[in-house]
Amino acid sequence: MQQLPTIFIIGFYLSSVALTHTQESCHVNDVGCQLPEDQIILKTKEQSESWMSAFMDQFETLKNFLFGEPSWNEDRAREDKFNEEMSFGMDEDLMIKYAQSLASSMLEGEQLKVFTKAATEVLMQREDKDADGGIIDDYSDFIYPPVKKIIPHKVGHVQHKELGVGPPAKLITKSLNPPLFEIPNFLSDEQCDHIIKMSEKKGLKESTMFQPKDRTLAGNNKGIERVSYMSFLTGKDIDKSLLNTIHERAADLLDIPKEVVQWSEHLAIGMYNPGGHYYAHLDSNEDNNGVPCCFQKLCYDHDLNEVDYIDCCRMCRYATLLYYLSDVEEGGETAFPLADLTLNEMLNKESTHWQNLTETCHEASVVIKPEKGKAILWYNHFIDRNGYITNVDKRSFHGGCDVIRGQKWIATNWISTPLYQHRHWASKYREKFYEYMRTEDPVQMDHA
Ligand SMILES: *[C@@H]1O[C@H](CO)[C@@H](O)[C@H](O)[C@H]1NC(C)=O
């Protein structure tokens, strides 16, 4: 147990920073940056929470400073090392207790009471919920990597990002809530064509939309309708080096470990003919009495009907990365009717047909035109300060407007990540993914 001495080192470090550095302003992620005075003088619960959050951020920086960045490599030995390193970061309850004791040396009276209450609430939220049956793997020494979000800055903001493989990405901010980006030419024409060819080879099925019968998802998912064809491409249906390239580019783009992408659902291909559309819906599910995430639990085992399915697991798609595989002559836009709306503006929409995109596509706050190779990225969930998902962001409602002329092809890469209390559970796609990767490549690109 090396944790206690380390905590003391950090404690000493933080205290000395607190005593010696009184910068007017600095970024909280900078080592040596001291928490602003107004966050230490706690008047409200919000303030104490923001203090705690700043503390946790600073703690991350300190941890990296002391131990270096954890490595996210594929081979087992490194994974073990990573787990070892992460087991330090894992003990955050201890951290909060430490924060409390640090606070008690700096705060007094009412301020200390408020802080202690907030810290206790955070601790209570972290209590692990009971594990259900059907869980894939529960490792005490495994931690699902945490995730983060790209900062959107402001609508119209352009940022360039170097990716490990292929050309850099140009991200254009389309909305702040949810953070939504357009990324032109994320895939090449050849890559798009290959994916379409492989889906045609595998065969597409008329889409059946999974819709709960006696429950409305996320408050209001009524009126959902979908007219399209779809198929899932697994590792054995697609050129492996291409799949690998897509995973790598997606991970670098999102700034998350490649494993999180590899262990998510298979690439979902969608095809829409004229008249085809998909009304505004959410990609992920709100908490439902603590049911586990679908990517961490097997629910297909027992011929469940849809209503039971939703009691078995819920979608935890923290981000959606959607690739346009074709141009569309007319129509087929992706619309976000609630993006960047205030709560009042959302409430005002309630009596309208905002989910029916046949009718209201062009009234949506963000409408994106399909272009071959372009990707769009948005976040469906809020995440906690540890990098695990919390609630669904309702402003991520989106859908496909009617195709007027031409054919629309898309591929969707849903990125799933667990709840904090389920961070020790593996993904059910993990083993399958490695299995596909070990088998011989049945299809290859450039075999014209
Ligand atoms: C959506 O709007 C169109 C055009 O107004 C209408 O024809 C269609 O029936 C509506 N769909 C639903 C499910 O209400």
In the sheet with the most strands, the strands line up as 1-2-3-13-9-18-7-6-4
CATH superfamily membership of the largest domain, which one? q2cbj1_9rhob like domain
Terminal CA distance reads 58 Å
**Strand residues, percent:** 15-25%
The description of the largest β-sheet is: 9 strands, antiparallel
CATH architecture label name of the largest domain: Sandwich
Q: What ions, cofactors and ligands are bound?
A: 2-acetamido-2-deoxy-beta-D-glucopyranose
Total helices: the number is 13
Uncertain parts: 1-45, 58-95, 126-133, 208-224
CATH level 1 class label of the largest domain: Mainly Beta
How would you describe the overall organization of this protein?
The longest helix has 23 residues, at 45-67. This protein has 2 domains: 3-125, no CATH class; 158-438, Sandwich (Jelly Rolls), CATH 2.60.120.620. The chain is an alpha+beta fold and 448 residues long. A 9-stranded antiparallel β-sheet has the order 1-2-3-13-9-18-7-6-4, covered by helices on one side. Mean pLDDT is 73; it is low at 1-45, 58-95, 126-133 and 208-224. The protein has 13 helices and 18 strands. Helices cover 34% and strands 17% of the residues. The protein is globular and about 70 Å long. The protein has helices at residues 3-20, 37-40, 45-67, 76-90, 92-106, 109-125, 189-202, 240-254, 258-262, 306-312, 343-349, 357-360, 430-438; strands at residues 158-161, 169-175, 180-183, 205-206, 226-227, 229-233, 267-272, 277-281, 317-324, 330-331, 334-336, 366-368, 375-379, 381-383, 389-392, 398-400, 403-405, 408-416. The structure holds 2-acetamido-2-deoxy-beta-D-glucopyranose. 2-acetamido-2-deoxy-beta-D-glucopyranose is lined by residues 223, 225, 356, 358-359.
